[in-house]
Amino acid sequence: MTELAPGFLWGASTAPHQIEGNNLNSDFWASEGRMPGMERSGDACDSYHRYREDMRLLADAGLNAYRFGIEWARIEPVPGLVSRAELAHYRRMIDTAFEFGLTPVVTLHHFTSPLWFAQEGGWLGDRAVERFRTYVEAVVPILDGVEWIVTMNEPNMLAIMVGMARAMQSRQDAGQWQSPTVDNEGPRPQLPAPDVKIGARLVEAHHAAREVLRERTGAKVGWTVANRAFVARPGAEEKMRELEYVWEDLYLEGARGDDFVGVQSYSSQWVGPDGIEPHPQHPDNTLVGTAYRPDALAIAVLHTADVTDGLPVLVTENGIATHDDTRRVAYTGEALEHLFKVIDAGIDVRGYLHWSLLDNYEWGHWEPTFGLVEVDRETFERRPKPSLAWLGETARRART
Ligand code: FCB
After folding, report:
1. Whether the Cβ atoms of residue 343 and residue 2 lie closer than 8 Å to each other
2. pLDDT tens column, 242-287
3. Coil, strand or helix: which one is 122?
4. Cα 1 to middle of ligand 1, angstroms
5. What pTM value is reported for the model?
6. What is the Å distance from ligand 1's center to 181 Cα?
7. Which of 71, 156, 363, 370 to mutate to test the pocket of ligand 1 (most atoms within 8 A of CB)?
8. N or C: which end of the chain has fewer CB within 10 A?
9. How deeply is 100 buried, as exposed, middle or buried, from its count of CB atoms within 10 A (0-12, 13-18, 19+)?
10. Facing residues of 10 across strands?
11. Is 175 a residue whose pLDDT tops 80?
12. Could you tell me the domains of the chain?
């Protein structure tokens, strides 16, 4: 049997904007009202008020970790005004995790920023890094006892979102919304590649945050990178390396010197001599259009360990958009088998956090459901799916 690292984390992940509801001061909330083809987040899962129930579900299932985020737009709704009440709110969340025996993995930025920050020029604005550092400094006092901190979620996907937002600003019509996490298929345009200039700025912001956190907390600090698990067709190896740099390695190199790196993996991507090959339509494709590839997780972890010179890996997201929970269990079971093989081969993996605890707001769409728990959008009632108990049982078995 695979020997897991002591204290291996077993749990699930969420992001504030996707579950809290009414994130009124954020840039994403503002764009929801403007873009055709984009559903609103609204009350989301009302986890802002119901986080205790969410955490209880995880703990009752036998899991020991919960990744959630702190929302910058709530902490600092206008520049320089730090809300003590919101800081206290997130401290209560951290304390609740401890109360339930859950290790909190806290994300400080998960795609969304305050609207004022975006209006000031966002991540390419002159003051971007300084603004982010000031926000991180404001949050530090509530992070006491937190062992795992993610400065930023998927900076590579964030770079795409920032690039898309800029492109839209310069157009007359708003255009049709394309969620960065919904894969291009059929008539949809290909996702643009992340812009390296934006990427370099995000690396700078990550390093600034890391410096603050290192100085003033005892936590392990890292960031999480979306991994596309590229696989080259014969003869396309060089093309693949080129793409890997722009899509992932810039950010993985930015993780060097961190305490850990978060791996986020959903599917794999073929690369041909001309570049990324769009997934053909296939009945097995997931609800976000990606190919069913549970083996992607091992490809992602190996590539990450390689580029980061063997940094400890935390799987911070892995999951499948499906209405069929049996498929979720099958996908996750297979992904874990692949992960265990990589651990057997000596890669230092510290935990597995499934995406996601709840069916939630998938960046413009409610249709793709990734949750271990279904949420009634009117009553907010939580209905655990069999996959939640299954994951808890898998964790329990792995511990004995
Ligand atoms: C990742 C995001 C997460 C969610 C999943 C499906 O790219 O980090 O918020 O959207 O994809």
Report:
1. yes
2. 999 999 999 999 999 999 999 999 999 999 999 999 888 899 999 9
3. helix
4. 31
5. 0.97
6. 6
7. 363
8. C
9. middle
10. 352
11. no
12. 9-399 (3.20.20.80)
